[in-house]
Amino acid sequence: MATLFYSISFFLLALFSLTDGGSIGVNYGRIGGDLPSAFKVVKLLKSQGIDRVRVYDTDPAVLKSLSGTGIKVTVNLPNELLYAASRKQSFAYGWIRRNVVAYYPHTEINSIAVGNEVFVDPKNTTGFLIPAIKNIHKALVKYKLDSVIKLSSPIALSALQNSYPSSSGSFRPELIEPVFKPMFEFLRETGSFLMVNAYPFFAYESNSDVISLDYALFRENPGVVDPNNGFRYFNLFDAQIDAVFAAMTALKYDDIPLVVSETGWPSKGDDNEIGASVENAAAYNGNLIKRVLTGGGTPLRPKANLTVFLFALFNENKKPGPVSERNYGLFYPNMEKVYNIPFTMEDLKNFKDESSRNGGGDGSVVRDLTPVKRGGNDNSNSNRSGQSWCVAKDVGKDKLQSGLDYACGEGRADCRAIQPGATCYDPDTLEAHASFAFNSYYQKMGRAASACDFDGAAYVVTAQPSTYCFNV
């Protein structure tokens, strides 16, 4: 659910801090033409007891509106600035001076996210991440803020090579030496944490024939036993998080905390987006909040009370992609709730999953969990009848680039093959790369007509074009 090159978004790191439980957060995206002003949003946050917020950039109006509110803030250095931050220490000094020092401490900035889901960034910014983090940290040291402001970088579950069973979790081999080991060393040395974006919805949507809805929504179910260690999992969320913990442990970094920087469930979707509904969104988010606030870690890390960020605060009517992308909100733009869920321990006293059904959801049990990845990491498509492809139109550079960014970013198309030196990098043209990304997304979405639009930048063909490289 990254918002690469599209918008300013906010993440709420925590709605509350508890002694015995974890913390819940909500992502506040701003890709909408009808959203309330930052001033009104701050009033909404305070009315809900929200005392921490993460901003997806450093918008002055937003940071000023948070001044003096007591709300702790996390700001973001966008992916498109990673190159400059990695190459010039002077840029990092200037960025921290303009976007952090200028507001701190009246705006209580307490952490910085350097990039977001960099490994799926179509602009191939992975190589800039570690140098950028180190340069930004040097800037914090210069201004004597390194002890009060932490740095991290959110990763998607696509960074995992294996995710099932959880105990076999491992990172993609090509990322371990150049990225994960130096990043974990940095996080350990600075006392920071790893940010992870995890979406059980995508796993369920793609594997609803083998994953029970109850298992995905934290409802009563028989559970799934990890064959390697005998641990029984009663929800997909814990299984996904433990896959990351296992991957960290395999590299001997099991002392580093983990924060779930994004998770959520859409209240509406296209016909082929299985499970997207108000009922399921309310169940997932409500039950997740209950699970986090009442404490307790995961089977692999039972003492790790988690900080979890819900996606998202508002429905955002200008987000591209399938219908679900515009329907993750907990609130409508008029600030009315899309559905009722608890936001505090006091609210939790009266909370009940009203949509819970006896025998749970679809009544099935998780029979098998093949490795599940967040939508778009697997180009395969079992439905081969009536072959069709999605290709780019000649609509101009800006529109093609916007569509490419979405497909490889939030759309979770597998764009590794169009990275420099990869199998489909040539022909090295925007139209060819966009066609690959559009088609990857289109196939992932089951060839739904709505999945081949990209704001008018794509169309469906029934004969595979010989001028483009496709993996499907």
From TrEMBL:
Residues 352-387 are annotated as: Disordered. GO terms for molecular function: glucan endo-1,3-beta-D-glucosidase activity. PROSITE patterns: GLYCOSYL_HYDROL_F17 (PS00587). Residues 388-471 form the X8 domain. One of its GO terms (cellular component) is side of membrane. It holds the Pfam family X8. This is glucan endo-1,3-beta-D-glucosidase.
